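We close this part of the discussion by returning to an individual protein. In the encoding step, the backbone of a single protein was reduced to a row of integers, each denoting a local shape. The sequence in question and its structure tokens are set out directly beneath this paragraph.
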Amino acid sequence: MAGGHDEASDALDERLKLVDSKVNAKIFFHKDVVVEYMDMKGILGDITEEKKKVEQERRRAMVVQRVDNLALVQVELMASKMELTMVKEELAVAREQLAQRNQELDEKDEELAALRVKLQKMEARNSNTDQQNGTAPDPVHLQPTRRQTRSMKKQGNQLQGVSSNHHLEVLRETLIKRRTRSMKKQGNPLQGVSSNHHLEVLRETLIKGFMELEGACNFGVKEMGKLNEKPFQAACAVSLPPEEAELAASELYSIWEKLLNEPSWKPFKIVAVGGDCQNEVIDVDDEKLQELRREWGEGPYKSVVDALMERKEYNSNGVFTYDLWNYKEGRKATLEEGIEYLIDQVKQLTVARRRKSRRMAGWP
């Protein structure tokens, strides 16, 4: 009995030791866990603190960057404000200059309009006298420069670009200055000199001005007595193959140009006009003219007849004279038409300049 009790007691002790060992092991384990936990908690705290510091530093850097950017923006705004102020000042000056220029152009338009009215009165006053006496303003005899010759070959002149606008301004100023000098010198442009003389001076001024303008248009200056080549080209283009027409037209034109300059060929005849009066007219029955008409038609024939009539009227002996010409209607232009054309071109130029000035000034 006693032996059995001892064995049971020993077994219980063993179990107690085992439990105690396990409990101690658990305690040590938990202690290690707590220590590890505390270590990890400390490390986590350090990391969190470091993160806060980094975040604060980042935010501080962002604030500094924003401040710097704001300073740059403020500088740019100040520069833009100064530039805007300068632009406003320039616009104000440009508007003042534009207003002044428009006023000057309006005054010049009024002067040109007054000049046109005066010319109309002068032409009306002298038209009957010119018709009765058979007189007319003398054409302008000029030796053309290369530039003028090229311009005449284009059969007319037109305002083109800055150069043409400049010539138009010069022509307009010349007319105004002539009128002003005449009025200052004489008190009246019709005193001390005939009105015909003033018409001739103005016509000469217009002719010289138009000769400086280049390009084709319906109004300009024409070489009087010069044979027109286009009808010859048109006639040959109809009658001949394209590969032969150009050369044939050039040869035919050269033949008749030489014939026109031949002193021995004078296709004119004298006809009686109103009793004792006689007049020299073109002999339409001239053999050469009739042959040209039969072979090549009305175009070349009329071109030669027109050249003969112009040479007779302008007494051209190889040196061509120039006169105002209405290309649209195919006739000599009047002085009034020249002034009206000039005024119309000035108005167009004025409108174009105003539009350009408004665009430069930023106006709609």
User: Anything to note?
Assistant: Residues 135-164, 185-193 have pLDDT under 50 and may be disordered. Residues 96 and 235 are 59 Å apart (CA to CA). Residues 227-319 form one domain.
